[in-house]
Amino acid sequence: MTDEKPSKKVADQYDRGYDYTKYWDNRDYEHAAEEIAIRRLLDGRHFGRAADVGGGFGRLCLLLREYADHVTLAEPSLTQLEAAKKVLAGTDVEQIQMQADDLQFDDASLDLLTMVRVMHHIPEPSAEFAEIARVLKPGATALIEVANYGHFKNRRRYKKEGKPLPTEPVSIRTAPADEPDAIAFVNHNIDTVVGQLSSAGLHLVDKLSVSNLRSERLKKMLPMSVMLAAEKAAQRRLASRDFGPSIFLELRKNGS
């Protein structure tokens, strides 16, 4: 008798009756903050082939198209890809079903890869990072957003309690999982993630602290223009302290 390998987990949770487009209602600040970060990290550069991995309904693909000749939305959810048809209608952005640990790109075929709001679903990302390294050309760029457990509020709390920040991912699920294979919700230690990326051959070039003013109270108090001006000023200044809830990492694949 042969041992059976465990079945590969399929990232299809967003096909189970959840409309992710609705998540972005009243989140104009967060969306704009991420666009500010991407523009800052890609400023002055242009790429051949780019892919947005786990890009949902194509929220950031049109922005990437400004920086790349060819953009692919690489998304595991058929529901999200269906929604992307409307968002990306009339554009040349390619839409393909695939997930981050099994990218359907040739070796060393991409000049740019982005992965935003995906890491909070991946407690152990070694397979995903290996795939990202595989499909990038030597010297190519990856922008990976990481949900940051070591943000300002948590650092202050752990310091007050005299405890070190966890180095492993921390589940932030607020309600019991409704299914045995329910999607994970975790925050990461940024230093741990940078080490994992380095082990995969992806080395840190730059980072930004993003969504630094994420607060429903501030959204009610301050005009959007004021919040975004403050966000733009803060992203680089606060990066070294991993201040915000979202950290954007710019990485380069080993090689010339």
Automatic annotation (TrEMBL):
Keywords: Methyltransferase, Transferase
Pfam families: Methyltransf_11
GO molecular function: S-adenosylmethionine-dependent methyltransferase activity
Transmembrane segments: none
Domain Methyltransferase type, first and last residues per copy: 52-143
Keyword Methyltransferase included in the entry's annotation: yes
GO biological process: methylation
CDD domains: AdoMet_MTases
Domain of life where this protein originates: Bacteria
Record bears the keyword Methyltransferase: yes
Family membership noted in the UniProt record: Belongs to the methyltransferase superfamily.
Protein name according to UniProt: Class I SAM-dependent methyltransferase
